[in-house]
Amino acid sequence: MDTKEIKIIAFDADDTLWQNEVFFREAEDKFAELMAPYMGKEQSINVLFSNEMKHLHLYGYGIKGFMLSMVETAMDISKGTISAEKIYEILEIGRRMMNKPVELLDDVESIFNQLNGKYRIILATKGDLIDQERKLYKSGLEKHFHHVEVMSEKKEEDYRKLIRHLDIEPHEFLMVGNSMKSDIIPVLNIGGKAIHIPHEITWQHELVEDGQEVKASYHQLDRLSDILPVLR
Amino acid sequence: MDTKEIKIIAFDADDTLWQNEVFFREAEDKFAELMAPYMGKEQSINVLFSNEMKHLHLYGYGIKGFMLSMVETAMDISKGTISAEKIYEILEIGRRMMNKPVELLDDVESIFNQLNGKYRIILATKGDLIDQERKLYKSGLEKHFHHVEVMSEKKEEDYRKLIRHLDIEPHEFLMVGNSMKSDIIPVLNIGGKAIHIPHEITWQHELVEDGQEVKASYHQLDRLSDILPVLR
After folding, report:
1. Is A55 on the interface with B (CB under 8 A)?
2. What is B34-63 written as a DSSP string?
3. Chain A residue nearest residue B135, CA to CA
4. pLDDT above 90 (res B209)
5. Side by side, which strands form the sheet with A147-151?
6. CATH code, domain with B68
7. Of B40, B66, B98, which marks where a domain is finished?
8. Would you say A171 and A192 are in contact if contact means Cβ atoms under 8 Å apart?
9. Are B232 and B9 in contact, with CB atoms under 8 Å apart?
């Protein structure tokens, strides 16, 4: 990777800068507990996932869509016999997720301070607008970003549009993220650069799809601060 | 209004370029019908509105938050006795809203063709990211916009941020929209220009707030195409 070419470094947010997926897993566990009288844990979570996938094109990513899918799944699994208390509890599970503090995954502030000036830093995050803005605000990191892009999808065309908007060439763009499917492969495919920092938990929807191939080289690092020696 | 100063015209989307509020009103009516065994129409809609307001800071604007508030309100109003069929129906009401075609409010295409070249045109819309992107896509208007900003709020600070991002001065910015509260007053207050095109239906949350004052002059027009003689 020719780091001298890089003008803009875009960071993914969820599970790259801060914890996210772990809260969805905790929520799924709580949901499965509520479903325990009707169905086993693994199966409940599978029905929930299939409802999430069914509505993803309409709901998009984020907590509200997840809440709507939990409500529907609870009706499905209980064959409509679920109690009002449990529906209220499902709504509370979602609102508690929204109210969680942000847990940064590394000393992000110091990393950004060392990069800023040398590179323009932006945030390129997929998800629900208000969820992502809320986390960004709570993170205290907003001041470091020259630009914040909340994207409804992270496919090749979405990155092409972003890079055009940033007024740079693809090879001047470096994406740093935890998802091969959303952060790395589409960026490499359009001629951009990428650094993959895997996270211990990955949502099954974010696993690499059949036919998605890595066609260029990229760095894989253990933790966010490892980008500093690469970019120096 | 000195139109020679204007560099960028930002259009609000919902109820400025296309119908929106009417679909929420239709959905509220359908919701109230489902609640009819428990409560009168007006009162049901009031309980729904109060739940929407209670969660607005967490859910933000858009159909998914509206759906979640309908589910909760149905539990509240029925004291938890609502049938599964009605909960499914409530979810369907929301998804049908998402699947509606876009109804443009005027010959927007032709209006944009006459403005583009002379001004840069952007979209500045408040709401849920995927809702707004879906409507923009269906509208066929995307190609006209130099920039699309989906905002979680439209307060003075949000406009300041947008105008900084656009790299212009406030007096070079013209906002066109139907909401005095969200499109006109905050823009005038930061030194921008505004054209108000009232829509027949306005959500009560979008009414001017106590203490919000109009401190500068603006145009009020009957329909979108009336902006052409003003801007010529």
Report:
1. yes
2. HHTTTS-HHHHHHHHHHHHHHHHHHH-SSH
3. A58
4. no
5. A147-151, A120-126, A8-11, A173-177, A193-196, A219-220
6. 1.10.150.240
7. B98
8. yes
9. no
DSSP string of B92-110, one letter each residue: HHHHHHHTPPP-BSS-HHH
Residues B119 and B224 in one domain: yes
Number of domains observed in the structure of chain B: 2
DSSP alpha helix (H) spans, chain A: 21-35, 41-59, 63-77, 84-98, 108-115, 129-139, 156-166, 185-189, 227-231
Domain with B90 in it:
21-98
In sequence order, the β-bridge partners of residue A147 are: A122
- Has this prediction a pTM greater than 0.80? yes
* Chain A residue whose CA is closest to B134: A58
- Give strand pairing partners of B18: B14, B104
CB contact under 8 A, A147 and B165: yes
Interface test with B, best of A130, A132, A153, A166 (most B CBs within 10 A): A130
Strand partners, B124: B149
Whether A72 has its CB under 8 Å from any CB of chain B: the answer is yes
The predicted-structure confidence for A186-215, as pLDDT tens digits, reads as follows 999 999 999 999 998 888 888 887 777 888
Calpha distance A162→A124 (Å, rounded)? 9
Phi, psi (5° rounding) for residue B180?
A: -55, -45
Q: Shortest Cα distance from A82 to chain B (angstroms)?
A: 8
- Tokens representing A97 are 């997720």
Longest Cα separation, chain A: 62
> Which of the residues in chain A have pLDDT under 50?
none
The sheet that has B193-196: what strands, in order across it? Answer: B147-151, B120-126, B8-11, B173-177, B193-196, B219-220
- Reported as a single tens digit per residue, the pLDDT across A121-147 is 999 999 999 999 999 999 999 999 999
End-to-end Cα, chain B, rounded Å: 12
